[in-house]
Design brief:
Oligomer: heterodimer
Largest interface: A-B, 127 and 127 residues
Radius of gyration of chain A: 27 Å
Number of helices of chain A: 10
Largest sheet of chain A: 5 strands, antiparallel
CATH architecture of the largest domain in chain B: Roll
Distance between the termini of chain B: 80 Å
Strand order of the largest sheet of chain B: 6-5-4-3-7
CATH class of the largest domain in chain A: Mainly Alpha
Helix content of chain A: 25-40%
CATH topology of the largest domain in chain B: SH3 type barrels
Shape of chain A: elongated
CATH class of the largest domain in chain B: Mainly Beta
CATH architecture of the largest domain in chain A: Orthogonal Bundle
Strand order of the largest sheet of chain A: 8-7-6-5-9
Order of helices and strands of chain B: HHHHEEHHHHHEEEEEEHEEHEH
Number of strands of chain B: 11
Order of helices and strands of chain A: HEHHEEHHHEHEEEEEEHEEHEH
Strand content of chain B: 25-35%
Structural class of chain B: alpha+beta
CATH topology of the largest domain in chain A: Arc Repressor Mutant, subunit A
Number of domains of chain A: 4
Distance between the termini of chain A: 69 Å
Shape of chain B: elongated
Helix content of chain B: 25-40%
Radius of gyration of chain B: 30 Å
Number of domains of chain B: 4
């Protein structure tokens, strides 16, 4: 077994940053500082996603660089006074390095996804930014891509998206009406919204839920109404973008279904714990579930293309739901 | 000398030099960087530095410096090095930040930072902390490359119904629907334009050669568009009543659904687009006893038929 501090990430100290990483950053941040003389150290560090310490260390090295013969008049002039940065003798670093092809593609594709997200206030600005980018970079960077990428609206526009984002950035507690799909009911609760993000076609908000006294992930389009409470909250550092969309709970039951062709979409739509292709062409999936109400409704929807393997009483519950539904029709 | 200092000096030297410089000339000028070692280890160090610069996108070129192609010099083409100024508004830059600021995509975020230097100062105020954006599709960069370069690709694909086969496709375009990326192109075996959801591709997308041009007026998004109940536009409408708890959610969820009236018992009657097929029935059933078809009668009996089959099973 390896000792705890083996490897680069295991030790408490961070591995020294690679020179190439620092150079890449330097060639990005210096042009900004050259063009915006007197920028505050704190602002520059914030804008370029680095610590003030990192920025100052990088500028320290810049200070002894320049052109041959590297005399006093050839070196880059870095002046830091009262927390502000002035850079002289570095006109050749007055513009940043071009975007690499993969950088240009990454921006373009991410931008395209988000520009097509329902209800995004920045969508028009984003679309025009992508247009300018494509025009300026030309086919060398993006090839035929800008002409060939498109989005089509699909999905709900969450009416409350703007309010949720504003509350998350101003840290205001909200009272919401939420359609909880798990129990198929609309509920009222107070939440501390920490982060709003877009994932696989839907907007989500990570929040502390005062009703359950726990962290919860809410789908923004299921939030019917929001009311500001005027109260501020202290963020708990809940994870937003990039988090799993389903967090297993202690009381989860394991539900195992066999999906025929018409029901396979279930495995694409819900997060599964396990998927096995069966010899008969069906897909066996295990879905973690805290409550069974939503599953009863799902099974009513996909019947007869899904077969319940476990829990055994789920079939009875589906039949019971079918019977209650049947009563509506006299 | 710190490697970073040497690299900065090398970039500055090659950017500012009017003529290509041979390695010996570089070594002579950047004596502190390469001069104190013997020639062959200095050359090795220089080769490594050159790789680092190319990795981050510095366009170092090698050109011959004499008519006999004996001596080679190094140069950086300013035209290719400098990012052209792009007049983004603060709102546009802020929107780009919003788009790339998602977990795990640091490179895209750094890329947007390159665009900052040409911006007005106002951008500083406009940058909030919101992180938006979701997961990435592992096949997206490769598919984008294929579209950008008009290449032909091969991959193994599983349809939504679970049928698996190998596909050979001339990449025409990419489209997003419901947060999912689709590759649209000419399916060589099937002889027509098809769309492929990237998440249904198993394994890698392989670039295999020249593709073909898309037809005149090609629009990728048109090939992934779908109505609420699958491909095609709904033909007619049905009236469905929803319980008060679910009504807003139900009517908000289907394109073209319209609330008609709220009944005295609080139930909401809505007109819902409908084309024959099972999907509308399935969707209404997903509300259980919280939804009821009002008309037409054939839809009512279809739904009752489904329920009775479940009860009899």
């Amino acid at each position: 077994m390896l000792p705890e501090d083996a490897g680069r990430s295991g030790s408490g100290r961070k591995a020294p940053e690679k020179a190439s990483e620092r150079l890449r950053r330097l060639l990005t941040v210096v042009p900004y500082l050259v063009r915006n003389q007197g920028t505050k150290v704190a602002d520059a560090a914030n804008l370029f996603g680095m610590s003030e310490q990192q920025l100052l260390a990088d500028l320290d090295l810049l200070f002894v660089s320049g052109l041959p013969p590297y005399g006093p008049g050839d070196l880059i002039d870095v002046d830091i006074q009262d927390g502000r940065i002035w850079i002289g003798m570095a006109d050749y670093f007055g513009r940043p390095l071009r975007l690499t092809r993969s950088e240009a593609l990454a921006i373009y594709l991410r931008g395209t996804v988000l520009a097509g997200a329902p209800g995004l206030e920045e969508a028009p600005a984003l679309s025009s930014a992508l247009g300018k980018l494509a025009e300026a970079l030309g086919p060398e960077a993006l090839g035929e891509l800008p002409e060939r990428v498109g989005t089509t609206e699909d999905g709900r526009t969450p009416d409350t998206l703007g309010e949720l984002r504003r509350a998350a950035s101003s840290r205001e507690r909200l009272r919401i009406e939420y359609y909880a799909a798990s129990g198929a009911e609309t509920t009222e609760r107070e939440i501390d919204p920490e982060e709003v993000f877009f994932a696989i076609g839907n907007w989500y908000v990570t929040a502390w839920d005062h009703r359950s006294g726990a962290e919860r992930l809410f789908r923004a389009d299921r939030i019917h109404a929001t009311t500001g409470t005027g109260e501020r909250f202290e963020p708990r550092g809940l994870q937003g973008a990039g988090r799993p969309l389903y967090t297993p709970g202690r009381d989860d039951v394991s539900v195992v279904l066999r999906l025929g062709p018409e029901a396979r979409w279930v495995a694409e739509y819900y997060e599964t714990a396990r998927e096995v292709e069966l010899d008969d062409g069906r897909l066996e999936v295990e879905l973690p579930a805290g409550r069974l109400e939503w599953l009863e409704r799902l099974l009513l929807r996909v019947w007869p293309d899904a077969e319940v393997v476990e829990p055994a009483d789920l079939n009875d519950r589906v039949r019971e739901l079918a019977s209650r539904t049947r009563e509506r029709y006299g | 000398m710190h490697p970073l200092e040497r690299l900065v000096n090398l970039v500055a030297l090659l950017l500012e030099s009017r003529t290509p410089l041979t390695f010996d000339q570089i070594r002579g000028k950047l004596a502190v960087g390469y001069g104190h070692q013997d020639a062959s280890s200095a050359k090795r160090m220089f080769e490594l530095d050159k790789d680092v610069l190319r990795d981050i996108g510095v366009p170092i070129e090698v050109v011959s410096t004499d008519a006999w192609d004996v001596e080679h010099g190094y140069t950086i083409d300013k035209q290719r090095y400098y990012l052209p100024d792009i007049a983004f508004t603060p709102e546009e830059l802020s929107a780009l930040f919003v788009a790339v600021r998602s977990a795990g995509d640091i490179s895209a975020e750094d890329a947007v930072r390159k665009l900052l230097s040409g911006a007005e100062r106002g951008i500083l105020a406009g940058l909030g902390p919101p992180a938006l954006g979701g997961g990435t599709d592992p096949n997206l960069p490769r598919a984008a490359e294929a579209v950008a370069e008009e290449r032909s690709v091969r991959f193994s694909y599983r349809t939504s119904r679970g049928e698996r086969s190998d596909r050979a496709v001339d990449a025409f375009g990419l489209a997003v629907r419901g947060g999912h990326w689709y590759l649209v192109g000419h399916d060589r075996h099937r002889g027509e334009i098809r769309s492929f959801r990237l998440s249904r591709i198993s394994g890698d997308v392989e670039l295999v050669g020249e593709g073909t041009d898309p037809p005149e007026g090609f629009r990728a998004a048109e090939h992934v568009r779908a109505g609420p109940w699958g491909p095609g536009e709904p033909e007619t409408t049905a009236t469905v009543a929803f319980a008060p708890d679910v009504a807003w959610w139900a009517t908000n969820g289907v394109a073209g659904a319209e609330v008609m009236r709220t009944r005295e018992d609080g139930w909401v009657e809505a007109s819902v687009p409908w084309s024959p097929g099972e999907r509308l029935v399935s969707w209404i059933l997903s509300f259980g006893p919280d939804a009821e078809v009002v008309e037409p009668p054939e839809l009512r009996s279809e739904l009752v038929g489904r329920l009775e089959a479940i009860l009899a099973s």
